[in-house]
Write a structure and sequence with these properties.
216 residues; alpha/beta; Rossmann fold; 9-stranded mixed sheet; 7 helices; 29% helix; 27% strand; globular
Length: 216
């Protein structure tokens, strides 16, 4: 799975992963990671309305997204006119306390995240195949300021029953990916099959959502 996979999904509007509503786990658990100041970072943010909810909690938001279609759609669908600037190797879209850097997550460096105190990941880690998840965790840990906290949501299901994305990332894998990089606390384990009919249609007989708080 490469960049073209995701660019094509957005180009064809095959975005079943997009949530039209604010994520309930974000509403329930954000207070655990909520920063007193600083920016909130949302990797692989798409056009998620969660960005607006986070902005409305009082902190500016920085997202990174590979697809320019997704970045533009976020602002258009929310009635915002962004200032567009070239910030090589990214293109920046910014309006009303939300900035989206359009480009590759792996091109971010510590300077991009120097003001970040909290991270929200609902759709990044679970979007990546196994060979990229370790690289993602290592890169995120390398570029985040010390003390930053991550609210992480993952899925856990039998990968033989249903292919990703979103991929199954069970508790043991989260612990292995971030061992030595962050302190990990599991906040919740939720039986999510009833609330995800599209996963049942794809063959999943069991699916849980896990919510974690990681401190780097």
């Amino acid at each position: 799975m490469d960049k073209e996979f995701w660019l094509e999904r957005w180009a064809r509007n095959e975005i079943g992963f997009h949530q039209g509503d604010i994520n309930p786990h974000l509403r329930r658990f954000w207070h655990e990671a909520a920063p007193a100041s600083g920016r909130v970072f949302v990797p692989l943010c798409g056009k998620s309305r969660d960005l607006l909810w986070l902005r409305d909690q009082g902190c500016p938001v920085l997202g990174v997204e590979l697809s320019a279609i997704a970045a533009q759609a976020f602002f258009e669908e929310n009635g915002l006119t962004p200032v567009r600037q070239s910030k090589p190797p990214f293109e920046s879209f910014e309006a009303r306390g939300v900035e989206i850097l359009c480009g590759d997550f792996f091109n971010l460096d510590a300077a991009h995240l120097k003001d970040v105190t909290a991270v929200y990941d609902r759709a990044a880690l679970v979007a990546l195949p196994p060979e990229l998840r370790a690289r993602y965790a290592a890169h995120l840990a390398d570029i985040l300021p010390s003390g930053a906290q991550l609210l992480l949501v993952t899925f856990d299901y039998d990968q033989k029953e249903m292919g990703g994305p979103p991929f199954s990332v069970p508790v043991a894998e989260v612990e292995a990916l971030f061992a030595g990089r962050a302190a990990i606390r599991q906040l919740a384990r939720i039986d999510a099959l009833a609330d995800n009919p599209r996963f049942r249609e794809r063959g999943a007989s069991r699916i849980e959502e896990h919510v974690f708080l990681l401190t780097f």
